[in-house]
């Protein structure tokens, strides 16, 4: 946001306010702070300041700060309670003699590590809330939604590749589609087995089309995901003639409806090029 100029300025503004989120400092990393990106921001701020414009920066609260605050509060609270317990439990020294010190030390060691783990988990989930997405229907997954998610994954991967954008990772795909990490991993694995996508050597790995997207049809994607346990599956069951006829009719109808439509046709049908601009960082 900006504030109107209070004096002459080359750009029509006397003061500006820049808000930086914690995720903005990630740069090309998946966690922590990217020094090169911070240096880039600092250079931009210095350049603006050099034009005579007053600038202010507001930083977002990163997940590490939230976890640190919660861990600190727990540490002080439990530490106070533990100290009070030791002061009021001198009778244990008479019962356990020298072993009392060892027992109390082990209890405090356990509580200390518990506080550390709680703070670390809070920090992680604040930065990656999409990991908290739960499967809503574990026993009988919605096959239609699974197939839709598979086509969406393949479309996003192809779209970023076609428009020369950063490739998608499992985390960013899960965050973009609002599904669980486990579901995306299962879909990606099915796509890899059918040679539809390939994994890069990055950390974390990202995904690219395994072959020309002109040769990958939407029907190929359907067939790949329908072979996973989240979809219809290909397990053999006792055949019933009438049911087999219906299933074959459904397969023919899907093939006819898709009519050989390729991923390239889907990608080119979008003219805005807006999907997936955060593929790598998600």
Question: Can you walk through the features of this model?
Answer:
There is one protein chain. The protein has 282 residues and is mainly α. It has 3 domains: 2-59, no CATH class; 63-127, no CATH class; 143-268, Winged helix-like DNA-binding domain superfamily/Winged helix DNA-binding domain (Arc Repressor Mutant, subunit A, Orthogonal Bundle), CATH 1.10.10. 53% of the residues lie in helices and 8% in strands. It has 10 helices and 6 strands. The protein has helices spanning 35-50, 63-87, 91-96, 99-127, 143-162, 170-177, 181-193, 218-225, 241-258, 263-268; strands at 2-3, 15-20, 54-59, 168-169, 197-199, 206-209. The strands form 2 sheets. Strands 1-2-3 form a 3-stranded mixed sheet, covered by helices on one side. A 3-stranded antiparallel sheet has the order 4-6-5. Strand 2, helix 1 (35-50) and strand 3 form a beta-alpha-beta unit. The chain is flat and about 80 Å long. Mean pLDDT is 75; it is low at 1-6, 135-140, 229-234 and 272-278.
Total strands: the figure is: 6
What is the CATH class name of the largest domain?
Mainly Alpha
CA-atom Rg in angstroms: 28 Å
Helix content: 40-55%
* Main β sheet profile: 3 strands, mixed
Q: Which geometry do the CA atoms define?
A: flat
Query: If helices are DSSP runs of H or I spanning 4 or more residues, what is the number of helices?
Result: 10
Order of helices and strands: EEHEHHHHEHHEEHHH
Distance between the termini: 25 Å
Question: What topology emerges from the helices and strands here?
Answer:
Layout: E1 2-3, E2 15-20, H1 35-50, E3 54-59, H2 63-87, H3 91-96, H4 99-127, H5 143-162, E4 168-169, H6 170-177, H7 181-193, E5 197-199, E6 206-209, H8 218-225, H9 241-258, H10 263-268
Parallel strand pairs: 2-3
Antiparallel strand pairs: 1-2, 4-6, 5-6
